[in-house]
Predict the structure of C-terminal processing peptidase-1. Serine peptidase. MEROPS family S41A.
Amino acid sequence: MSHRLARVPSHRLAHPFPVAGARDFTTGSRIAQTAKAAVLTALVATFSSGALVDTTTATAQDQATREVVPAGRPAVRPAAVPMPKPAPQDGVVSRLIAKLMPTEHVSGNELSDENSRRALDLYVEAFDPLKLYFLQSDVDQFHRYSTVLDDHVRAGNLDLAYYIFEQFTRRVDQRVETIRQLLAGDFDFTLDEDVIVDRDAAHYAKNSDEARDRWRRQLKLSLLDLKDADDPVVGQEARDQLMRRYDRYASRWKSTSSDDILEMFLTSVTNSYDPHSTYMSPATLEDFAISMSLNLDGIGASLGEKDGVTQVKQIIPGGAADNHGKLKPDDTIVSVGQGDSGEMVDIVEMPLKDVVKLIRGKAGTIVRLGVKPGGSGNLEVLKIVRARVQLEDSAARGKVIEHTLPNGGTMKLGYINLPSFYMDMESARRNEADFRSSTRDVARILEDFKTQNVGGVVLDLSRNGGGSLTEAISLTGLFIDQGPVVQVKDANGSVQKYDDDQLGTVWDGPLVVLTSKLSASASEILAGAIKDYRRGIVVGDPQTHGKGTVQTLMDIGKSLFRFKQANYGALKVTLQQFYLPDGESTQLEGVAADVVLPSLTAKMPVAEGDLKYALEHDRVNPARHNLYRMVPMDLVNNLRVNSSTRIAENDDFRDLMRRIELYVQQKDQATISINEDKFMKRRAELDAQKEDEKEELEQQFANKEIFIDTYYNQEVLNITHQYVDGLRAQNLARAN
């Protein structure tokens, strides 16, 4: 079909997409620009010519299944499955989001064509992340609207969202029928074939023949993955399980509500600003409120969805999973069972909110999780007793360690394990004199350390994901004598600094802050301030997590009405950004370590920079503050050289670096062989590797002990010991 620019009567602009119930489309101010108006006019001309069809060359099967849709009318769907339609308030919510994002988001950016392009890609990707369902012709058709989506959001027009959704559900039905046919046939597992598993390396099929071949390979991979290593053949049970999985997947999309579509679409729009800004539908907002009121009853883990599987993002200190010790970040959960013997429910391709409902439950009850460590290898079933996060389990704890250097010399060192920055808010509001907080607990530990004459202190933030900003500031104040700790910039560009205003310090001796890629937010503020003040050194992964932003939850109902009339969902928007005293943002780049130690976490894709459209790193003007003489560069260079020498001579570290190299190779693979012999050999190698990785992470992040005597932690103490000796040699062992 040829597409021509044409003068189209203005009334035809009312229905730019072939979707039932299309509402009047009011153009935004920028659409009057010549180029953009020409694009929209051309698109409307395409629809008004009588039919919407694929423009690429199609196979015979494509010709048989291709829909010809009259302009302005809904696509043909089975009568038993009516399409959802936008609720009356959805357009109002869309228009409000379009107004709130430019005014409330820290960037202050208007909703633009760049947001439009990003949002369209994110919305399509939300349906089909591995590019298995849509054809390239579908995506080409969608991309013709990449510069007008922003105008639709401003106008409250959701036609494009529903048009893409309809096309996706049609493709799902076609693919599931293909899957049914393929699973009824035979597979040759001796062929030397592979499957693309990297979404960036994948491409959309050009036609249904190519789509069928991709699904044939995908099913071979899934069948091999389900195959027991001791079985000579892939059994019928595995085929049945896959068919049930994809039937459920198709059924899931048929039960999609207008709220679900609105949430996916508007979250694609807000995610075009940054990955932490999202729209919560009314149901999601209710679930959020429930999870908060339950005080983290459940397993105590933050979960996410990636390519149709549930992935562990973070283990909450003091929670059931943390105390269990086996579940780790980057693991995938593929099945869930209730109690000691309940059926293990396959959750692959299940919506994340439904997965959370299966896992969440009352404290004291049992949930069983089918887990693949690191997302690959053999299935392992973990039995976890749900529990409420106890403050005591996530509180600061300290220990005095008698440390001896490899070449001699013994010193007392204080070690503080701080999993989070916490405060008993209710007790603080009641002005109780002895309310619990991380600052008060760490201060008591430091006072005890001083009575035991420790030479230096290690503050372990390696698994601290953040917490109270107020606590981060006051806890930093235990080590510095007044001054700015963090600066905060809001949407209008104004910058406010937050100071430690308490005179004096609790600990003025040598300080080492231990961090990892999992150290985030408030942890990065403390570590960064300690670096900027030259008050101590940072040891650990090359950089911390890199989350330097603050989000707030805005109730849409309250934004629309003076008094909340109904649940219209909520906007979670990034409204501020953190900056360190010297003006550098912690966003994206995090806080760099002075002395770097090799670790698996450094290579895991769990940082802010691994998220799409994360805000860029920038800086503001530095704030005036004191400088201490606790980080002489000659001493830091010596610490690096000595540590590197010890690591190179340590068998445990050499083995760790070998495992890190294997992990990176496996993580970076774009394809997996589906030749059975090669697949099973690779899986056996991965199982052995994952067992080593699991043991390494358990040692690094176990919560049951304050200090675990591992080769890694011994090297942290070696660095601390030599740091104290070096400061003493230069008469710098106290902060002045």
